Amino acid sequence: MLADKDNTMEKNLYELCVEAGFELDHHESDLYIKDCQAARTLLNQHGQKFTPFLSELDGAMWLDVPFAYKPYWDEKTKVGNG
To answer: Which of 4-13, 52-61, 64-73 is least confident?
Structure first.
């Protein structure tokens, strides 16, 4: 989890990306962020590893962030506790 500027609430990487308005997608637990300098800056500031790739669907560059798609893990938690 990552702290916001006020340190009043912690946000994870996925939430920060949504808040920043980045174009997002995913495959299972991997978060895909459309490549842009702001996204790379955010990932680097938080020491997050990522792999750039060229999408065969739209021909654009995306950043693959392993295991960072939080809704996947939220659903896994529900299934595991249900």
So the answer is: 4-13
